[in-house]
Design brief:
Length: about 425
Amino acid sequence: MKKNIWFTGIAAISLLLGLSLSSCNNYPRENTLKIYNWSDYIDEELIAEFEEWYQQQTGEEVHVIYQLFDINEVMLSKIEKGQEDFDLVCPSDYIIERMLARDLALPIFDDEFRSFPDSIDYISNVSPYVQGLFSKLVMPDGKNPNDYSVGYMWGTVGILYNRAYATAEDTDSWGALFNPKFRNKMFIKDAFRDVYSPMLIYAKTLEARQNGTLAEDEYLPIEEIEALSFDSSDESIALVESYLKRISPYVTGWEADFGKEMMTSKNPKAYINLQWSGDAVFAMTEAEGVGVDLYYNVPREGSNVWFDGWVIPKYAKNVKAARYFIDFMCRPDNAIRNMEATGYVSVIGTEEVLEAMTDETMPTRCDLTYFFTDPEGNPLAGTESVPVNEVMYPDRSVVERCAMMHDSGARTEALLDMWSRVKSNM
């Protein structure tokens, strides 16, 4: 199955020009839907198709203004200051948590939009696994995070590696980052949260083995990994900093986005890359086209599972159209198209998606009973062993050692200071 048809430069320019033109048409605000999302994160044809679908369902016109961001905090700053009246944004997990904590989100499922007719109710297609992750978001006043946010894409953090220079065994542990054979041959994601959590898990695993509470072939239970996802104490920050400073002089580059392209070179500057699963899929596909063999591993000590989701900001002007757009994105056929366009994995867990993603040519079979279920939450038939891209849909044994990141609140500044010190140590 063909994947990762990412925006080319021309396509991206065309999309931005289209957005600029639509924003100059001065449509009434009540007929305008302003969306703020990551770049390269949607099948762009769905935007116009949504406008047609919305009119069919409601009898009303809507015109989408679709703008792009590349940093969570930039998007959040605009929402916090009330500078932009976006109707819909798609932040990452910890930013969703921060928006909910700061009362910056409107409920999606209020009385007016409690439910759609059964014929167009697609939000119920979101996998119970993802709904369970959302329920772990910390929210004040006992409110349900699933009433304020709906998942869009999800994935893991792991190690992308070049099979000509590294093996699955090499990358089966975060110890790969300390392996002398990869010195000056590794990229590290310039995203302190995605690095901090795995390093803390790794450091605590080694600590437990040293004090005898874990055997050499044992790993921390998921309960402890989940607890560490909240840990930004001075002690833990210092521990992670000490580990990262050991490897920082040997890092080829701290990369925000270029790692996936650089790894596809026949003369690579790096052999391994701490990477997001979605970008790993992109890199693997691109590399295959030029004869480079890349693969991806989630180390056994444990890692992050992340997600991005839809939120209606506090200053939204068109809540109705925003919820219809969320619903439209949850249609299985649209979820499949978005995955084909981006390489990232939709949160939709229906039989149609399972069928589309099943690939008998895949060498691995994964237990996906945690993700693909019927409306009652029962695993779909055959999901115990599915031939599928295991980078996109990891086996149950992988996700059961991954925990969601949380907002570090007032401790964020301490984490950023640590990150600056580490990178200046090169």
